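S.,

Sequence below, as promised.
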Amino acid sequence: MNENKIVPAVSVAVMRDATIMLVRRGRAPSKGLYAFPGGRVEDGETLEDAARRELTEETGVDVRGLAPLREILIDSRHDGGSLYMLTVFGARHLKGEPVAADDADEAAFFTLAEIERLPLTDSTLEIVLELLGGDVVLPA
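The prediction came back faster than expected:
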C-alpha cells in the first residue's frame, strides 16, 4: 500500500439541546481520547452515507440532516496508521440514546463544562465551541 495514499474518513458532531455527543476511542488512532463518532469511508459510499453508517455502528443514534463543517488532514503514519482526510459533519439529534459499540468504548452527550475536562482529539473543542456558540447553523 502506498503510505502516502489519503484515506477518506468522516465524523459527526451530534448536538442535542446544549450538549454534544462524544465517544471515547477504543483503538488506534486516538485510543483513549474523546472525539466525534466516525471512521473510514467504505468503497462506493458517499461521505454522508458513511457518516450515517459510522454513527449508527458506534452509537445507535439517528440524526436529522448532515451539514459539512470542515475537512481535516490527519497524519497517523508515525503510529503505523494512515493519512486521513476527515470530513466533519454537524447534525441535530433525532432519536436514540448513545450506546458505545464498534470501536468506541464510551458514548454519551456532554455539556461544554464536561467536555473541557476530557482528553480530546485535535480540533474537537474548537468545533464544539462553534456548535454551542451558534456559529454554525445545523439543519432543523
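DSSP finds three helices and eight strands in the chain.

Coffee later?
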